[in-house]
Amino acid sequence: MQNILTKTGRTVLAILAYIGEVARLAMESFLSIFSMRVRWRLVMRQIVEIGTRSQMVVIVTGAFTGAVFSAQLYFQLQRLGMASTVGSVTAVAMFRELGPALAGLMVAGRVGASIAAEIGTMKVTEQVDALRSIGVHPVDYLVVPRVTAMMISMPLLVAECCAFSVLSANYVALNVLGIAEAGYMRNLIFYVGLFDIYKALIKGFVFGLIIVFVACREGLRTENGAAGVGRAPTEAVVISSLAILAVNFILTFALNIIFPAN
Amino acid sequence: MIETRELTKSFGNKAVLRGVSLTVQDGETLVVLGRSGSGKSVILKHLIGLMKPDSGEVLVEGEPITGLQERQMTSVRRKIGMLFQSAALFDSMSVEENLAFPLQEQGVRDLKIINERVAEALEMVDLPGEQKKAPSDLSGGMRKRVGLARTIIGKPRCILYDEPTTGLDPITSDSINHLIRRLQRRLGVTSIVVTHDMKTAFHCADRIAFLHEGRVHFSGTPDEMRASKDTEIMNFIEGHSGDTDT
Predict the structure, then answer these.
(1) Measured between CA atoms, how close is B147 to chain A, in angstroms?
(2) pTM, to two decimals
(3) Does B243 fall in a domain?
(4) Tell me, what CATH number does B41's domain have?
(5) Domain range for residue B62?
(6) H or E element that contains A146
(7) Is the Cα dihedral A158, A162, A164, A165 positive or negative?
(8) pLDDT tens track, chain B, 246 positions
């Protein structure tokens, strides 16, 4: 019994220590941003890396999820005579939950892993120490451009994911499943509001920060040569994915207080 | 110019430095010798504030740097340049960009001045005209030279060399040794060279400090070291491990 308590205690302490480290990195980054130490040339490069190059994966994910979601809803709801609500339910689900979460998980896999691997390689090859020896703070040069780029890119990626999911759901519902357009569109416009879009963008913004800070932390903490560089991206993806799912749950309730569902 | 006082540093249970006191005078070349894992590179990283000691002090031009925060270290680091063991070139940049980077960080914006200083630094390390190459296209010796060019381009008053000849063939090592000596004369900088290569030590040193069991076991001129009858020093110079084949 004591053993279990000890292990549980250690795990909780380790999680708290990890959150503390990430929070410290976040604080240092925001201090740097507010002190106008942003290198815009690097930010632009990172927007291409994080934003532009993630579009395909996010669009494909959103489009196919929207398509299958609307098909499944149709199979269930048509028996109740509610086929015209397929579009609105799909859109609400995508905007409020699936769009941000799926885009977050996809970006964690693509961008989080790449950030952790790149910074981790720089760490073990002494390039991070070389930056410091030149008088450049690694947070200013490596973390801040990525954080800034992520803050700009991630809400846009989530918006793209949601938009393509709704478009593909519309296509499947109206052209493949043959749902009547008038009722479908009326419900869509009636049940989906601006607040749903706000929720998607806020969630995307928060998930982006989780991905970039976890990935940068893993990169900057990389040790033990090639083995460490191999481990850093895996840790970054696993930790940020789990954090996104957990934070999504909290955000759902928090945002429902700010923007009530009704 | 640089002084350490009773520096101690442990990693886990392993005490690497157990009270290292060193003084390096202006314009002097000090070679720090010692076996692998004796803490030579650790000392070097303390001198430029890349590591914090468990206890003891590092003074640069009389000012203690041990308590300084990372952002307060910038002015100290502009006085001290470091050549890393792996050269640590930024692999996302070309040779030219690697060299221009410290200048841009110092606020130099004039492209003409940057280009001139890059060309001058490359000429000093015998690599004229190599501006456009990527670090991946360079040999080990060339990487060290470019790393050295990046170190000297900011005109530091002190250069730290971390194992400058490790992993290089004897001919390239010899040319790096000559380069270190030549730069020391031409730029008049203080130099601290960490190595376990006796040839480098005797070629470059004005004074040698020999590290053993986390402390400075010997400090003196190369001639004094050669004449020493201390077993540890004699074994190190002659490369005797004391092991047998059977």
Answers:
(1) 10
(2) 0.88
(3) no
(4) 3.40.50.300
(5) 2-87+157-238
(6) helix A144-171
(7) positive
(8) 889 999 999 998 889 999 999 999 988 999 999 888 888 899 999 999 999 999 999 999 888 998 888 888 888 888 899 999 888 999 989 999 999 999 998 889 899 999 999 999 998 888 888 889 999 999 888 898 899 899 999 889 999 999 888 878 888 888 888 888 888 888 888 999 999 888 888 888 999 999 888 888 888 899 998 888 888 888 888 877 777 777
At a CB cut-off of 8 Å and minimum separation 6, what does A154 contact?
Answer: A50, A51, A103, A104, A107, A204, A205, A207, A208, A211
Contacts of A40 in chain B (CB under 8 A): none
ipTM: 0.88
Q: Which of B74, B84, B89 sits opposite A135 (nearest CB)?
A: B74
- How many Cβ atoms from other residues are within 10 Å of residue A119's Cβ? 26
φ, ψ (nearest 5 deg) of residue A75: -60, -35
Total tally of structural domains belonging to chain B:
1
Q: What is the extent of the structural domain holding A43?
A: 38-258
State the CB neighbour count (10 A cutoff) for residue B108. 15
Which three-class secondary structure state does DSSP give residue B89?
coil
- In the DSSP assignment, the letter for residue B105 is H
Contact (CB<8Å) B45/A126: no
Measured CA to CA, the distance from residue A127 to residue B92 in angstroms comes to 11
The answer to whether residue B121 is domain-embedded is no
Give domain status of residue B22, yes or no. Answer: yes
Task: State the Cα–Cα distance between residues A65 and A74, nearest whole angstrom.
Answer: 14
Residue whose structure tokens are 């994966």: A57
